[in-house]
Specification:
With 266 residues, the chain is an alpha+beta fold. The protein is 30% helix and 29% strand. It has 2 domains: 77 residues, no CATH class; 164 residues, Gcn5-related N-acetyltransferase (GNAT) (Aminopeptidase, 3-Layer(aba) Sandwich). The protein starts with 9 loop residues before the first helix and ends with a strand.
Amino acid sequence: MNMKIEKKYIPLANYFSATTNPTITLQFTEIEKIMGQSLPNVAYLSYSWWKKTKAPAKHYLAWTAAGYAVKHVEPKRYVVFVRIEPTNDKDNTKTNENILLIRPAGHGDANSLSNMQKKIEGESDFFLYGHGERLLSTQKTRKQIIEWNQSGHSLILLAILNGQHVGYLMIEGYKAHRASHRASLRIGVQNNSQHKGIGSLLLKKAEAWAAAQSISRLEVSVLETNSPALTFLQKNGYESEGIRRKALMIQHNAYDEVYLAKISIN
């Protein structure tokens, strides 16, 4: 990463670095979702802001460092980026592939995250909260993000696919010293974005972050009927440690939860 890039544009730089697509079209709203922050007003008003490639401006490094240039700007709507530097990829037939970015949530992601949580929970019968049951406000979610980021033991990761927030993973740790080595996980991916490796990358990023925080035990509970999740976790080294009997009541039927954990040696 070029250290000259302004901090707020680093996620955007990571996004461009993750692809070799010859053309990338992004809505202004998608760019802001990737960044987790709003674009400056001048970006909405001035075509020349996108065309700047000289100091003292630095925002352009987010795409030029990855070999892209701005081809066209539709004010307040979208920007078209084109690749101007050749790649070393021998398979030139691989074009317009999905671009997946995983990054920590910031306070600017609060509205999108709360809406995504409610959407994902509404798509499945495997979560604690049912469709329309969770009362999540942008303000409450923003407060949670800020507090977790400041805690050092908890984190929310966002999965951004082609400029859209499609999944999350929450790592909730403990302040108490005796339990500071462990944390619980909650993961969700939208139905239309599953089977694309998003869950695996979220888990990989979460485990790397946990290791850096000296968290050696990761815990997760899964509904007994959620076979895909159980298989996914077991393939990633999570072992069943027990059953919480009749943990959830869904449509007047009782279901057990399976407790799983993964222990690593730091």
